[in-house]
Amino acid sequence: MWAILSGIEGNIAAYEAVLADIKRQRVKVEQLYILGDIVAANPDSEKVIKRIQNPLPGELEPQVCIGWWEEQCFALHGLGSTAEPTELIARFGKETAKLLWDSLSRETVQWLRNCHFGFFELDCLLIHGSTISVSDELTPQTPPWQMLDRLQRVQANHLFCGRSGQVFEYQLQGGSVNSSVMTLDQPHPVQTITAPKRRVVGVGNVGRELGKATYTLYSPYSDSLEFKTVYYGSKKGFGN
Fold it and tell me: Considering the domain 2-239, what is its CATH architecture?
């Protein structure tokens, strides 16, 4: 069984609640994946990183890939593909950018840079956004041809993503996509890509909504999928 998380966003209480819920599962969880957005403009982001780096005895060592917030950190520190976090500032403003800067040390940002972009396990791709970028947000409203394109790029039958923060299961029952290139000198043949049944899964968000965390359990052996909701703090309790 795999536990797949995304979007802790510096919320240490939410992360602890999910770890406790994982321990309570009847079927043993063998792998723990965290699909980005571990940090955010949150003073507790360093605590989350330290907790991930130092699992308690008997706990799984998380496998971590980068997300949108990590990319903004890289830009802030001059380590990304852009000179400054224009996307962060446009969305949240300069005050949030300053808070993100203050929330993480240079050492932590360097550690984040060593995290993976995504994971390909068996026939599953686990990634924050998509094969395009960490900003690429897949949702239940995403057109089928776009979903197929993201899957086809890596030949994955199952894509697990966290960018939207939603929990959802999106099934492609099989089909084909025609593509062609138009030039001025001569016509080019149409290429047809035929795809079998495939699935895109939104794994939820751990830390964005105070008091409520969502994550996903998946068995690659039985292909079973379960969305989990954990209430903590004043709303403490559990649900499916």
Answer: 4-Layer Sandwich (3.60)
